[in-house]
Automatic annotation (TrEMBL):
Taxonomy, superkingdom: Bacteria
UniProt name for this protein: Tripartite tricarboxylate transporter substrate binding protein
Family under the similarity heading: Belongs to the UPF0065 (bug) family.
Amino acid sequence: MPEVVHDAVAGEEAVRQGEVAQHSLVHLESVRPGMSPPMHRRSLLVMSGLAPAVALAQPRAVRVVVPYPPGGGIDISGRLFAEAVAPLLGEAWVIENRSGANGSVGSAAVARAEADGRTLLCNSDSHLLARGVMRGVPYDPVADFTPVARLAVSPLVLVGAPGLLPADLPALLADVRANPEKHAFANTSLGTAGHLATEVFRLEAGAPVLVVSYRGTGPALQDVVGGQTSLMMAPLLSALPLIQAGRLRAYCVTGAKRAAVAPGIPDAAEAGMPSLAPIAPWFALWGPKGLPAAQVARVNDAVQAAAGQPEVQRKLAELGGEAVTGESPEAFAALITEAAARGLSILRRAGVQPE
């Protein structure tokens, strides 16, 4: 509880009874909800004048809404950065998983929240395309939010069953164009980077390749391994063990460069499909519309500091990701404008309609 610790330091200086105040506060933290501390310790707090100071000075925790269940990439990235950023800012950050309606329930809650810096949204780039794939979304994914900071980027990898498909991307494209009925793409969710990359491939091939929806990455990958579906734009971390075991063939990773965790897989441009290069999932923080620039800058600075920590970088690498560094709120806002326009254009060209 960073607030209690910081208030204790201030209280020690204010009343010049540091040892008593610190002991009392430490004990107070260990009391179970609904129980009162022993009377002599409460008396010490009141006599020292520290208890009122703590009660008045404690800020509310920052609520970071993750609009999906625990355990996914957005949730893990949010928790990693919340743990690193909270001590830098001297305040508690609490992750609130508020899932439903493909992320729109939690996102709507943040859009309605007061722009006081105490409520943030942690989401992926798929947030930008909510109205492109869903009807009745009660907010504008761009206009109703304030960009704060990107956290991390994690590439996708184009995979297929090794015994059933050509060995490289140009040969694969030629086969898809010649025999589109032989192929199908596994996909897990509309409007995600994986869905966009799938549509880019289909547009580039100029072939009506079937897209099969799955409830989850695991089942989708298993069907690609088994040949029930031939291709997938998969999260690199999820597919990498199967690639390393020889059960999947990797054609390329999305993004502008090779992934550090899988340097042997060519990037999209190297493999022959540069149109896939801009499509790599990223995770970020937004605030409600109207969040003051000073608060945006404060959190962005802390995120940048956290992104430079070796432990944060190590944990992201284990997840197949890479921290975003050196990006200002203004640069992030410009990227959002570009990414939203590109994504919506891909959906329109592919004939995707909101459902």
